[in-house]
Every structure is written in structure tokens, then in C-alpha cells.
Specification:
By secondary structure, this protein is an alpha+beta fold. The protein has two domains: 12-275 and 440-462, 2-methylcitrate dehydratase PrpD, CATH 1.10.4100; 281-405, 60s Ribosomal Protein L30, Chain: A, CATH 3.30.1330.120. The protein is 49% helix and 7% strand. It has 19 helices and six strands. A four-stranded mixed β-sheet has the order 4-3-5-6. Strands 1-2 form a two-stranded antiparallel ribbon. A hairpin with a 4-residue loop joins strand 1 and strand 2 (79-81). It starts with 11 loop residues before the first helix and ends with a helix.
Amino acid sequence: MSRSQPPLLENATRDLARFAAQFRYEDIPAEAVERMKTSLLDSIGCCLYGATLPWTRRVQEMTEAEQAAPMASLWGSGAKTSIANAVLVNGTAGHAFELDDIHKESIVHAGSLAVPVALAYAERDGGWSGRDLIAALVAGYEVGTRVGNAATMSLFYRGFHPQGTSGVFVAAASAGRALGLDPERMQHALGIVGSQAGGLMAAQEGAMVKRFHAGRAAQSGVYAAELARRGFTGIVDVLEASYGGYLSSYSDKPNAARLTDGLGEVWETAKVGYKPHASVTSIHAALDALTHIMRSNDLKAADIASIRAGVSHMTYVHCAWAYKAQGVTAAQMNLYYGLAVIAHDGVAFVDQYDEKRLSDPALLDLIGRTEAYEDAEIEAMGPPFRHAATVTVKTRDGRDFTHRILNRRGSPENPISAGDVEYKFRNVVRSCLPADRIDRLVELCARLDTLSSLDDLISIVSAPRA
């Protein structure tokens, strides 16, 4: 693209930076405040469980070896390190088991980025209120999801992981808000972090590095904000630049207007959803459609002769590749494995993605009798229905059952409740925290907007696991 072409949208980076730096807590609508309270609980649960997993432990071992100045906690360990290293580990933990919240249009899991960043600064500084935390979270959610919206699904189709690319803007805006950056320096923070965006989707087929994309994005956001605070400059039109800008480089079909559409009036934060399954969001409708068929017709796995799943082109590319037992990441991203565990166990949660299950002969047998295809009707409905699915089960006695779900559970169109997220949280952290601390975290997050201090919350997430 020629350098002489006009920007994709005038002053978009400047306008987002001004918004992130200057909005007041009182400007945030009640719906968005409630969503942040729920996201905080959900994200803490993801981080605390994710910190127990081997890929996160390897990242933590690396950071501990550096012996950085102890400013912020490595959650669940009792240890401290620098803010940049703490968010590297805690962000990796948040995305470590495909449980973190999801903004549908942007395909960004903002909670595993904004929550570790904001709480790290709150711990270092002391004196933060719950409202201070909410404001820092909203700054990240609003900026990062809008960047993802503007990049469109084209970014994903090109092979980039939105968490490591668009996600860096979540972290930079939250860190910039935590540091109290003025609009000009917030703009430079975004301009710095845009050059740090990275993450390749081939990681979904087995590599631990997919989890690391979130931690690295969180760390990049901290570095960007800290550099901007010191007068370091970034690309002031990083989002809209026609040559070498974020959208022009990462997306073949950007929609730059989505950067600032309704800014300050339409709050993307209020559109965040939550995962009822421990798997990639794209397959949730298919899993629930199979669940519906089996429960409605009193079927067991032994009754199934075959399964056919019709999905969008995006889900087919993302999740319908031939399954091989090559690690937890691959299983969580794979449509066939997810359908098989639903058929056999009725759920797709923590236990179903244990290493010991990945080569289960019964699961592999059903996977061999499962077919996926691109459903032309779903594809014709466009991007808002990219997670939809049509599932058909043929039984061994010759019956056929079909069920279609257009809007997955946890999406803006079919939300799960705060009570559902609490239920999920309790199940996720039961191996990490004693019951009284679980209850206390639920209570603190529920009244986050009234807390004058975050000390109690921080002490619980920071304490070493029993």
C-alpha cells in the first residue's frame, strides 16, 4: 500500500486514547459495571486454576529465576516479582485452559489481560478502591475490543491470534489508566504496544505457546505504558495508518469505523460473555446441540452410530481439523474431541481435558464416526452467526435427530447469568482455594463497586495454595 494514501480513519488512535484516559467512573453504565464485577470473578478463577498447570509453571520458573524487584504477586504462589513479570505469568495463567471470558465480535479474551494488569498495579500502589479497579478494567476492555472489532475476522483468517495481537491494546490501555497517563501519553502507549502485537494461530494444534500469547500481550501493555510515562514515543496513528498501521498490516478487510463507533455511548464492555465449557468458543453451540439431542431423547454414547456437525466456514477452519492426541491445547480447540466428550461424559470441563483422557479409545472410536461440514445456511447468515451449529445424530437403531443452535450460550444474544459464572468459578477453583476463601472472593467481587480497599481481595489471590 502506498504511503501517500489517506489513513483508514482520521485520529482514531488519538480519540481512543483520550477516551481511555479521561472517562470518569460515573460515565460507565450500570450494565457495564455489573459485567466487570462478573468478569473479575471469572478471570480470577481462570488465573488461579491456570497457575497450577504445567505451561504456566514453566513461565513462572523462568521469571522467578530473574529475581526481579518484588512489586506484584504471582497468584497462588506467595511469591512476588516485577509488575511486567507478574502479568506475564498471571496473564498466561488466565488463558491457560480456554476458560476466560470472550467478546464475540473482537474475538478477544480481555479478562486474562486487563485483570492481571490492573490488579498488579493496585497491589503495588495500595489505596485503590473497587471503582478504581473497574475504571482500569473498562479502559482496557473498551479499547482492545474496539481494535478487534475493526480488524474483523480477516485478522483471524490470516492466521493471527487475536489474543496476542488485538489483545495488546487491552493491556496497554489498562496499564495506562492505572498509571494515570494523560491523553497524549496514552496515545503513545497505544502507539508503542501496536508494534508488539503478535501471535500465530497454528499454536492451537498442540503448542503451549498459545497460552503464552496472553501473558506476553499483558507484559507488552505494561512495557508500553511505562515507556510512555517516561516520554518514550510510539506511532501516534498506529491503528489507522494506511502503511504499516495495525489494521492495514494485520487485516485484509478492516472496518476502521468500528474503532470509534458510538464511543462513550455504546459500551463494548457490556457485551462480554462467558464460557460454560473449557474449550474454544467456536464449538460451544455444537456441544450444546449434541447435549440437547442426547438429553431430549435419552441417548447414551453407546446408542450413537454417527454424528454430523454443520458449522460456519470460520469454525470449520478453526476447529474441524483431524484430531490427534497431541496435547491439551489441541483437544480444547478441536470440534471432534469436544463432541466425543459431550457424548460420553455429558460435559466438557476440567476433567474432560485431562492428559489421561486425550487418547481414550472410546473417544477415538466416536471421533472416527463423526463428520463436520460447512453448513451453507449458517455461512449465509454472516459473521454474527459464525459460532452457530447444526448437529445430526444417527442412532444404531436407525433413528435420526437434528438440532440447530444459532447463538451459543454465553454470547450477547444468549447470555449466561452472573449466578452461572459463580457456579463455574466455584467448580474451577475448588482445587485451589479453601471454601471460606472461595466464599469471600465471591462476596468481594459482588460488591466491588462499594469496596474502599482491595487489600483483602489481593491477599486471597496472592496467598500460596495449600
